[in-house]
Write a structure and sequence with these properties.
- About 30% of the residues lie in helices and about 25% in strands.
- It is of the alpha/beta class.
- The protein has a single domain, classed as Rossmann fold.
- Strands 1-2-3-4-6-5-7-8-9-10 form a ten-stranded mixed β-sheet, sandwiched between helices.
- Strand 2 (about 25-35) and strand 3 (about 40-45) form a beta hairpin.
- Helix 2 (about 120-135) packs across helix 4.
- The protein is globular, with a radius of gyration of 18 Å.
- It starts with a strand and ends with a helix.
- About 50% of the residues are buried.
């Protein structure tokens, strides 16, 4: 492990009773070495002092920014999916590399899975990663006024929750979600056995009728207000088991509070990152429009 000159900061937006241990103080830790692929430099960091690999991230930097500081480039934070129980930051490497080649700083983050901790641990961890990046914006060439979030499937729910929790628009200028599992209450109602009953047994930790308030707290649409950022959502028309209703709900709620939001419907039944090649140009152009 290599010690760098970058630092941590107290966690942003920790909710009462959710646990508010501080982001690691003092020098941050670069883990492993660096790698360069097609002109993009990737380096990995521990953004929080607890939970090991669960609180690590990969920073993808365009060639033009390598070896420089304070360039203030637009930045996209990518949150992986996996039904809240699988996946890692490495899953978003293709998207991060594409964004970096277009001039963005791209950051793929890990977080505690639901097998390790119940909600809101996932939101708290990604928020801590964002705080870490903002604290070290000059080091990473990040423009704090031009940050966006990207998430697919369960990662879409986490990204949307981070975006809408607290002072959303002050930290982010755009949110993109692919096939977001955006309403855990709907999942528990319509298909409680989804992914080995991940929502009641692991993510929330109780049945909907026993703790409705916990479910409500995990629905990003309920936190939306006029201070939030624009969003772009995608969903396939024939996805199974969850169609576009949850995405449509988020878009409708966004518009009702005066926040621009759009849902693009795709033909077929591909889920989330499976249709990335069909939408990547749209996503990157949208981020260029909203962050650059």
């Amino acid at each position: 492990m290599l010690t760098t000159g970058i630092t941590g900061e107290a966690a942003h937006g920790a909710s009462a009773g959710s646990g508010s241990a501080a982001v690691a103080q003092g020098p941050a830790t670069k883990i492993g070495g660096s790698s360069t692929k097609q002109g993009v430099l990737k380096r990995s960091y521990q953004y929080y002092s607890q939970y090991g690999n669960a609180t690590t991230l990969d920073v993808y930097m365009p060639k033009s920014a390598v070896g420089k500081r304070g360039l203030k480039l637009p930045t996209v934070v990518l949150v992986h999916g996996g039904a809240w129980t699988m996946g890692s930051r490495a899953d978003r490497a293709p998207q991060a590399n594409q964004l970096a080649r277009k001039g963005f700083i791209a950051v793929a983050v890990n977080y505690r899975l639901a097998t390790e901790a119940a909600w809101p641990a996932q939101r708290l961890d990604v928020s801590r990663a964002v705080t870490f990046l903002r604290k070290n914006a000059e080091y990473f060439n990040i423009d704090k006024s031009k940050m966006g979030l990207f998430g697919s499937s369960a990662g879409g729910q986490i990204a949307a929750a981070v975006a809408t929790h607290g002072n959303g628009k002050q930290r982010f200028k755009g949110l993109v979600v692919l096939s977001g599992l955006l309403n855990p209450a709907t999942i528990a109602q319509e298909n409680p056995e989804y992914s080995d009953s991940v929502v009641p047994d692991k993510l929330i930790g109780c049945d909907l009728e026993d703790c409705p308030e916990r479910y409500l707290a995990a629905i990003p649409a309920r936190a939306l207000n006029r201070s939030d950022m624009p969003s772009l959502l995608f969903h396939s028309q024939d996805e199974d088991p969850f169609g576009p209703a949850q995405s449509a709900e988020f878009v409708s709620r966004s518009r009702s509070v005066g926040v621009p939001s759009k849902l693009k419907m795709l033909k077929g039944d591909e889920h989330g990152i499976e249709y990335w090649d069909r939408v990547n140009d749209i996503v990157i152009a949208w981020f260029e429009n909203h962050l650059k």
